[in-house]
Amino acid sequence: MIAYLLQASKKTIITTLLLLGLHIVCLSQTLKGKITDGLTGEPLVGANVLIRETGQRTFVELDGYFRVKELKPGSYTIVVSYTGYTTMEQPVRITAVRPQTILIQLAAAAEKLEEAAVTADKRETGARKLEKNAAQLVNVVSARAIELSPDIAVGNVVQRISGVSVQRSSSGDGRYAIIRGLDSRYNYTSIGGVILPSPDPTQRSVPLDMFPAEMVQRIEIVKSLTPDMEANAIGGATNLVMKEGSNKLNLSADLSVGASSVFTQRSFSETPKTGIDFSSPTERYGTDYATKPTDIPVGPLNLRKVQYPINIIGGLTISDRIFKHKLGYNIGASYIREYRGGNTLYYLQNGVNNNPPNSPIFSQSEHRQYSFLQSRLGVQGNVSYDFSRNHSIDLYGLFLQLDNDQHSHYDVSPFVPGEVDYYDRFVFDRKNMEHLALDGHDKLSPKFSLNYTLSYAEAKSTTPNQLDLFTYKEVTYYPNYSPLYVNNLPSVWQHSDDKDLSAYLNLSYQPAKNITFTAGGAYRHKDRTSYYNDYTEISTTGDPNQPLQVYNGIDNAKFVFLNPYGDTTNENNYTAHEQISAGYAEAKLTLAEKWQVIGGARVENTSQNYTSMISTALVGKTGSFNYTDILPGLHLRYSLTDRQNLRLSYFASISRPNLYDLIPSTSNTDLTSLYTTSGNYNLKHSTAANIDFRYDNFFSSTDYIMAGLFYKQIANPIEYATFTLDGSSVTAVNNANILYGPTNPGSNATNYGLELVASKFIGKFGLSGNYSYTHSTVTTLKQLSGETNGYPTVSFINQTRPLQGQADHIGNLSFLFKDPKSGWDAQLSFVYTGKRIAVVSPFYDLDIWQRAGTQLDLSITKQFHSHFSVFVKATNLLNSRLYQDIDHPNGLIGYEGGLEGQTNPNRILIQRDAYGQTLLAGVKYKL
């Protein structure tokens, strides 16, 4: 009986304890709260939240809320802290009735306003504010977004921005931005609004793969121009804002290593740099010097095989504000040593046939292997001094260097029996960018303010001693075996220098709070030089009875010069000058706190001249041009609410010809072997009328939507087509003056489309993306080959096509995970680029198209404590390839044994590129 009672009591006690525990759990509650900027209402993602009484700590998540679970009923004190804001304490009482949600607004600390502004500018919050409040239509990528992206160079970052795709280099890196379907010639790149020169002697475009991404504070893609902006952008402008100083000591350093999967399948071919001469023999010894074979350094041909090469990336940034916060500075450096590779299949087109009509002719296939050793060095410094609250100056300096050490090997297979050719190119290419700018900001009175910029910028490119080694095997005569013979050894020296001196002045007058008048001007003087010289050595044995020379290494090969004096009388040798003078006036008016109106006009005068080294017998050895444009603009913004805008813009803009495009040349390419390619001194600059409409809704810094439409009509577009310099009719088939190159078609080009940007976060998970549709048309003259009564015929007809580089559909989608409490950040990014013209053909309907393609990338970051983090970046996870085709019935199908890649009867594969995956892992320290 006693045992029974004890057993019953034990059960009762256990049951009572379980019920009591359940009751306590039921009484505990979850506290949910939102932390925002007290002035703007923006959620402060990552703010630190502490429950003083329990010691529980959490962070504001991507949806703007924090959550603290299992709080028993009672009184608590919430302590909220965030960089640049005053720490705030707020009491809260938890009851057993229902979960509680609170709102806490933080105020920026008065003594840290500048720090808060700089910090916000680096975060996504700052990027969204810029997009929301900017007078122009602009898309912004913040420093934080760049840091968390999988990309290490700016050229790859921009492909993730709405309406932007990229033209890639041979290494697979994004090099030039294509904005709204308009090629890089229709856009410009600037730093802080100052247009940069280009190291490429043939164009104005700045290669974005020169810029290490970690040196950039934000990237702005400006799609509508206000009168105070330079007008040489029909597609848009890529403006880079480099990292600036902060209001307290900041130090960050990172180091990472990685590799490319390409070199798990084969070794890397490294070319020694020893013995490279940066000046050609003609430059060293004079134009009357007969070059000898010993004057051509051949050290780079002694290749070294590297197994599993390792990429190294490092960066260091330090900033502070000293001398009673009057002097601020920022010093940063970045170094990237990256081994890149590619494997390419290429089919060489060398003409057209008339039967079937207008069908391309191919003679060989090529398997190419690329090995690139890219070394990027970036150093920048910024010093700012505040004389007073109304007067300050900023001095900014930048140095960039991109070295590209390249070996390319081609295995060339003819379609019919014959010799098999091998081609090896050895190139060391160096590009430099130097930029120095002085900015002044002066508030002259409560109503007048003045700012100015003085800038020096120089871009250089040098390719010393490019060597092309041609070897072959005589398989016709030795079907089972043939030694390797050496054929010839061309060598090239080239370098260019593009130097800009610029000055900008802006004066503002604000007679009332809601109206501002601004006027100013700009002047830029450009000096550009380009040098090119090539020599060709041909194989010789010295024995006329045995002309074939077996190749046993470059040190044993014998050559004689075909042109010992080189060739500097071609279109690649020129000097050019350009002066841009501009003035503008605009007014900004705010009405009823809802309407913002910006209207005005810009006037730009362009003066250009060049002197080339082509023969005096050719027209166009020199040229000069002068024109003036009046460019009006009107921008309307209506605020539906504090977070919603309707925008409508009209502006006029221009696109100047590349200086190289004006020089008549006499060169040929494989694709255009039936024609001489040439520059065009009759080329006119393009002008455009642009209309934009956009709706913005910024629910928060993390949740937003932007939807817009755009339309552009371009007069005198610059496109590649057939033309004559003397103005004679191209339709005259026997006209020997028919050329192929940049020209102005007789009709306008149109370009229109829509853009969508959206982002949504729920707790720790987020989804962001953008989509753009673009449609463009231009009509150019092309050759059509055919046959009549058994006789070949040639005619010239117009063909309407999209603009080169324009993809109908571009999309980006990113899946995000962010947990401030545990320190995890992850981003899985998907990029889609639709079908687009890669190369414009002179032949009717034979343009080369790049197929639609995708890329999947991943980045993961883990924060440890408050200073250290580790990260992993992986690109091209799916090993996506790039394909280029001609949309034409495939006549290559049916060759005996079959041809690699030629499987579709309705298109001809021209090129297939494979770059493999890249992986990077590293550690970062932030003070």
Distance between the termini: 72 Å
- Proportion of residues in extended strands: over 45%
Instruction: Write down how many β-strands occur, each being a DSSP E stretch of 2 or more residues.
Output: 49
Shape: globular
Q: Which structural class is indicated by helix and strand composition?
A: mainly beta
What is the C-alpha radius of gyration, as a whole number of Å? 32 Å
Q: How confident overall, as mean pLDDT? A: 88
- Described by its quaternary structure, the protein is single chain
Share of residues in helices: under 10%
Largest sheet report: 22 strands, antiparallel, barrel
- List low-confidence stretches: 1-10, 12-26, 110-121
With helices defined by DSSP (H or I, 4 residues minimum), what is the helix count?
Answer: 6
Describe how the helices and strands are arranged.
Layout: H1 2-27, E1 29-37, E2 48-51, E3 57-59, E4 65-71, E5 74-81, E6 88-94, E7 100-106, H2 113-122, H3 124-133, E8 138-142, H4 143-148, H5 154-157, E9 164-168, E10 174-179, E11 187-191, E12 194-195, E13 216-222, E14 236-242, E15 250-260, E16 268-270, H6 281-285, E17 304-306, E18 311-322, E19 327-353, E20 359-388, E21 391-414, E22 420-443, E23 448-473, E24 485-486, E25 488-512, E26 515-539, E27 549-550, E28 559-561, E29 574-591, E30 595-612, E31 622-639, E32 644-655, E33 676-677, E34 686-698, E35 704-715, E36 719-724, E37 738-743, E38 749-762, E39 765-788, E40 791-801, E41 809-819, E42 824-833, E43 836-839, E44 848-850, E45 853-864, E46 868-875, E47 881-886, E48 908-914, E49 918-926
Parallel strand pairs: 1-7, 11-14, 33-37
Antiparallel strand pairs: 1-4, 2-3, 2-5, 5-6, 8-13, 9-10, 11-12, 13-14, 15-18, 15-49, 16-17, 18-19, 19-20, 19-48, 20-21, 21-22, 22-23, 23-24, 23-25, 24-27, 25-26, 26-28, 26-29, 29-30, 30-31, 31-32, 32-34, 34-35, 35-38, 36-37, 38-39, 39-40, 39-41, 41-42, 42-45, 43-44, 44-47, 45-46, 46-49, 47-48
Helix pairs in contact: 2-3
